[in-house]
Design a protein that fits this description.
single chain; 390 residues; alpha/beta; 7-stranded mixed β-sheet; globular; disordered N terminus
Length: 390
Amino acid sequence: MKVFAIIKRGWAGASIMVLAMVIIMAYGHAVQAEPIKIGLMAPLTGPAAADGLSVKQSCEMLVENINAAGGINGNKIKLIVYDDQFDAKQAVIVAHKMIEGDKVVAGVSGSYSFTSRAAAQVFQEYKVPFSVGYAVHPAVTAGGPYVFRVTILGHVQGKAGGMAAAKLMGVKTVSMLIQDNDFGQSLAKGFRMYAEKLGVKIVSADKFKMGEKEFSPVLTKIKKLNPDLIYNTAYPHDGALILKQAADLGIKAKQMGSEGLDSTIGFLEVAGKAAEGIVITTNLDRDSTVPITRKYLDDYEKKYGVAPDMTGASTYDALLMIIDAIKKVGTDSEKIVQVFRTMKGWQGVTGKIQEFTPNGEVIKDVELQVVKGGKFRRFGVISDQKVLQP
């Protein structure tokens, strides 16, 4: 009561600052603003744990930097991280925990297509914005207007690969090794469509399950066909095994992959010398001179002692988009979504977003990287609008 009596008298002449000081002295601390809660799901355990670690570290680095600079309009960000365990059922559980338990204002997926698709349905149901980092399957954003992705659709990336194979690598014949899941089939569909359109002949197309260990039989068949290029849609570890076993068999064909191989720990370190010369489609240019990209690349390596990869960079952008939207319009879901719908020319770590389609699909350039000296380097870029349109 003493404090409130002082406050009452204070209205006559004391400044607001003095009143604040009185309250702080009476209660021993200032009232803290509520943090802005943003959820993050990633595969922190299981076969994709290396990707999950890259995602977690990238997003934590971003939040640390934002909070050190004062947060969002004076409010600190609280990043709530969950392990989806590389499992769709767990992704649904995680989504409910974020929304119902943690009361997040938005969610971010740093996970794969099948887990992101499962979580996206929950976010759409509750009308909470969900920003997806690197899941490429069309079904991820098909559920409704609250789901957006910052990476390029699988079949668009596949089309870019087909154009690169025909026009930049000059190949005439291709053997395809297709991972039998959403990711692999989406990429393969786009690649085949555009490669054949440009006169490339597909001489074989074989599917494999994720986690496959022995590729020698199918690679032996491919060796006899003697294609100019082997195009695979593998994830990091499987892709590394494909290249190592191809090298062991003496296969001289050029190699191409996708963003599924854009991993320092999971792919480059496992494949070793067998990765030299492979070209991948992705959205992270290691030789970029764009300030935001350069800063991310340098800061990440300095902080964690390893070069970053596409999964971390894409999810960094997915989170940064949410943060930028909240800075503009606050935490209202409808207003955040409206920012995304009208976004044009937004520059992220993984390139400039030209715009989003009505279905939440991003339109931006596809980067081509080649492995040189054990590192990803710039090979080229696909900016043809006919290829980039979802």
